[in-house]
Task: structure prediction
Amino acid sequence: MTKIALLGAAGAIGRSVAASLRAQGRAYRVIGRSRAALAESFGHDPLAEIVTWNPDEPASVRAALRGVDTMVYLIGVNYWQFDLHPKLMRQALDGAIAEGVARCLLIGTVYPYGLPRTARVREDHPREPHTFKGRMRLEQEQLLMAAHAAGQIKATVLRLPDFYGPGVEKSFLQDAFSAAVKGTTANLVGPIDTPHEFVYVPDVGPVVTRLIDQPGAYGHVWHLAGAGVTSQQRMVEEMGRQTGHKVKTRVAGPWLVKMMGWFQPFMRELVEMHYLQTHPVLLDDSALTALLGTVHKTPYEAGIRACLAALQTTPDRSAALTA
Result:
């Protein structure tokens, strides 16, 4: 049976991919720095093989990837450490190529596009990032696709918009969900009435497992868009409708975000990405549906209901965003 490795598996998308593999009865390997974190998420699953590594040690990378046929690259970094993205990709690629890993799927982001030129962004949209984070993500993608072009590994990229879902702590909507349940005030980055889209995390795993099995996926970039265009405001209003009370909000504009950045590393790093709140990148994923056929997307109303239910039974452990 094909051995699939999830690099950086303990995050929300990694857990979604693992759930899809588990539903198919497919064995997989989860790779990360912390055995405790991996055991917490996957220790209950007999299909999961837990492997730790140190990306800075080539022998450790090779050992972690030994016997792997396909790797799904999900490694996130702190928002203030985006310079690590190309470095970590290079380290993983070197080990994968040395061990004969045949395929790699990278979970990507909209950051490499920079300012959108079109209302809907297709995969052939120019990649002209004007931010440091966008350039680092672009360099990461270029390293992978250069390896594909050189015949060293078959590679593909799945780009996602912002995401949300039950148990997802690193989301722009997380504070709103928490406030809706607790009756407190949600801290949001504004403006919150501009068009936006969010992908529901449990929908991602099935798309990833279908893509890695699709020979025509490799050598290309794909988009998975959200379940339609919405806004933070509309999402918060729906939370209020479902909980039966209006959710109070406190909205930080660009100047307040900048001021908060003097004291908080995450907010400081968010300043350069604020353009996404005023010039949203809305993805066109018609190419993905042409390749795979029907792609399930959970309606926002249902996704919000699941998130609220999860928070009512699980402690809220919000953390800084990674991407």
In short: The domain at 165-197+229-280+298-313 is CATH 3.90.25 (UDP-galactose 4-epimerase; domain 1). The chain has two domains: 4-162+198-223, 165-197+229-280+298-313.
